[in-house]
Design goal:
- The structure is a single chain.
- The protein is of the alpha+beta class.
- It folds into three domains: 92 residues, NAD(P)-binding Rossmann-like Domain (Rossmann fold, 3-Layer(aba) Sandwich); 215 residues, D-amino Acid Aminotransferase, Chain A, domain 1; 68 residues, 2-Layer Sandwich (Dna Ligase, domain 1), CATH 3.30.1490.
- It is built from 14 helices and 16 strands.
- The strands form three sheets. It has an eight-stranded antiparallel beta sheet. A four-stranded parallel beta sheet has the order 3-2-1-4.
- A hairpin with a 5-residue loop joins strand 12 and strand 13.
- Helix 3 packs across helix 4 and helix 4 packs antiparallel against helix 5.
- The radius of gyration is 22 Å and the shape is globular.
- The two termini are 37 Å apart.
- The mean pLDDT is 92.
- This is ATP-grasp domain-containing protein.
């Protein structure tokens, strides 16, 4: 895709991007819709310098001025706001309920932000979920761990099944920990409560990205995790793609249950060995791990422009059909990335392993030299130090290659 600007189509919607993402801005800038970026004050200089339409807003603070941003955007003639990050999903719901005069959009955004409410809503819609509960303190966690294992009819001496703890409203793996024994409960800091507790689901975990127009799926991608928190590639292996019809049915059920008319969802599921699908969670924003960028490498379409199409109320069915490729068959190759975590406690320099660099699938990396020598200990799932990108023709080579990266040192 070339980065040449398209002429603005005045018949089409005017969109507000909530949050700062350079790739989203570049996509909007070369697309045919008017756009404005709503981002914190630190983005202002960059926007001025590059002629990017911009409104300053602090998403950290929900306050009595919260209505102001919706009114500002309405006065500007904006049709819809698009959340780019987890922290802006609620804001988008609040703003869109004003812009579109649909008060229910705010309640919907709250459901898509609070993992406990989300699971309840999913359950009411007949979606399969594991056992879950909220915990307000460590005693709640110990009780839940015991009760889950009692339910599983564990005998004295059997190893306990682990439980998962997740922050209510953080993105992805942030604040996610696995608890196996009552002793581990003591390691949870006070400030992490309240948390959502879930039973462990044995199965193959994967993610979905679905663009939605008029309540229907416009494009559905299945992202295959090689190791959660480390690596992902698109499209998925034939082993996972064989569940596509079942997955599509699950997404249709999700759209119906959460009443989603437009936009984009990024849910995670587990499929068990007998083919049963369990719902993990759903986000109403682009995925982490640069999956949008991977899709562009694989299919050639700009996923952020797809996002703008899916949110814009003035998008037609014809535009959607013309924009999105055919799933799987139109993919030119497999594109994957690996998140690097230093494996040593003390590191002094960045050194890309030769077996990574010399592999024909290796494409590029965005790793930077270490700023300090001591690697901070990861609590739960930490943040990776950067991504390494791969592209190639074979799904299984890609999968094995991404797995192999876990054994290598990028920081020495």
């Amino acid at each position: 895709m070339s980065n040449s600007k398209q002429a603005i189509n005045p018949e089409k919607g005017y969109v507000a991007l909530l949050g700062w993402s350079l790739n989203a801005v570049e996509a909007a800038d070369t697309f045919d819709r008017r756009y404005v970026v709503v981002a914190p004050e630190w983005a202002e200089d960059y926007c001025k310098e590059h002629d990017i339409p911009y409104v300053a807003w602090n998403f950290e603070r929900l306050n009595d001025r919260s209505m102001e941003i919706a009114e500002t955007l309405k006065d500007m003639g904006v049709d819809v706001s698009i959340p780019l990050f987890e922290e802006t999903v609620e804001w988008a719901g609040a703003i869109n309920s004003v812009l579109m005069d649909k008060p229910r959009l705010f309640g919907q955004a709250m459901l898509l932000r609070d993992k406990a409410l989300m699971k309840r809503r999913a359950q009411l819609g007949g979606i399969r979920v594991g056992i879950f509960e909220e915990a307000h303190d460590r005693d709640d966690v110990i009780r839940f761990l015991k009760r889950v294992n009692q339910t599983l009819l564990k005998l004295e001496g059997d190893p306990d099944d682990p439980i998962h703890l997740k922050a209510f409203d953080k993105a992805g793996c942030l604040g996610h920990r696995v608890i196996r024994t009552p002793d581990e409960v003591d390691t949870i800091p006070d400030e992490e409560f309240p948390v959502l507790m879930e039973s462990h689901l044995d199965g193959w975990e994967f993610a979905v990205e679905a663009w939605i127009h008029n309540g229907k799926i416009a494009f559905l991608n299945i992202s295959e995790y090689v190791t959660l928190g480390y690596s992902v590639f698109v499209p998925a292996t034939p082993d996972l793609e064989k569940y596509r019809e079942q997955i599509r049915e699950q997404i249709e059920l999700l759209i119906k249950t959460f009443d989603i008319e437009f936009g984009f969802v990024h849910p995670e599921y587990f499929v068990t060995s007998d083919g049963t699908m369990y719902f993990g969670e759903v986000a109403y924003r682009p995925p982490g791990f640069k999956v949008f960028e991977l899709l562009e490498r694989s299919y050639g379409f700009n996923a952020y422009q797809g996002l703008i199409l899916a949110f814009d109320p003035k998008t037609t069915d014809e535009e959607i059909k013309a924009f999105f490729p055919k799933e799987v068959v139109d993919a030119k190759n497999y594109a994957g990335c690996f998140g690097v975590y230093p494996r040593r406690r003390v590191v002094s320099r960045l050194e890309i392993p030769t077996e990574t660099e010399d592999h024909s699938y290796f494409e590029s990396h965005e790793l930077t030299p270490p700023l300090e020598e001591t690697v901070t200990k990861r609590t739960a799932f930490g943040t990776h130090w950067g991504l390494v990108y791969f592209q190639g023709d074979d799904a299984y080579t890609m999968r094995d290659l991404l797995k192999q990266q876990e054994e290598l040192d990028f920081y020495v």
